[in-house]
Design a protein that fits this description.
The protein has about 200 residues and is an alpha/beta fold. Helices cover about 40% and strands about 20% of the residues. It has six helices and eight strands. It has helices at about 5, 20-30, 65-80, 90-105, 130-155, 175-185, and strands at about 35-40, 45-55, 55-65, 85, 110-115, 120-130, 165-170, 190-195. It has a five-stranded mixed beta sheet with strand order 3-2-1-7-8, sandwiched between helices. Strands 4-5-6 form a three-stranded antiparallel beta sheet. β7 (about 165-170), α6 (about 175-185) and β8 (about 190-195) form a beta-alpha-beta unit. The longest helix is centred in the last third of the chain and has 25 residues, at about 130-155.
Length: about 200
Amino acid sequence: LFTQALRSAHFLPLEQQPAVLGDAWMELGEKVRTTTLIMIRMGATQTQVALIATGSVVQSATINCGGADLDLACIHYLRQAHQLSVSAPSIVALKESYTKAQYAKSVFSTVVRGKHTSRSEITSVTLTEKEVSALYRHFFDELAMAITTTLVQEISYVKNSSTPIPIYLSGGLSLFSESAQSLSNCIREKIQVVSRPTVAAV
């Protein structure tokens, strides 16, 4: 698997290596030197995808989609579904409370306040876990399709059940369980979320 890519690889200087390499070192330590893996980092504005071997990035690609796009998707949804115009801090608070509820395995429900789009008055709407999860799942399903296309076209990814390549997920968006689920369903491979997804390696 990846034999041709590895033979023709042009290894970048250390200062030009993408952040995904730091994530790999933080997760695997010295094992990175002897492990071939794929690291996917879902960041604030971009998603990085990289094939890593012998401690260096062999191939990498960037998708211009990240946490900021999820915020915009939430704002658009609330405007269309609930006629509610909300601020960016409200969306950030929604994401934080949702991920905290996921990790605590508690029932999620929250009230979002904003301005009604037609009446120009302050109003609120109650969002259930089912509704918010469906919104996030739709976003991550689309991102997963873009990642899968990138793996095939840019990283030369070929699924091989006899010698599977471990796939890791890092970055702030990996805190959402929907991100790994959507990616796993799309690629049809097990996705491992790194132990410290929001810690950036410098």
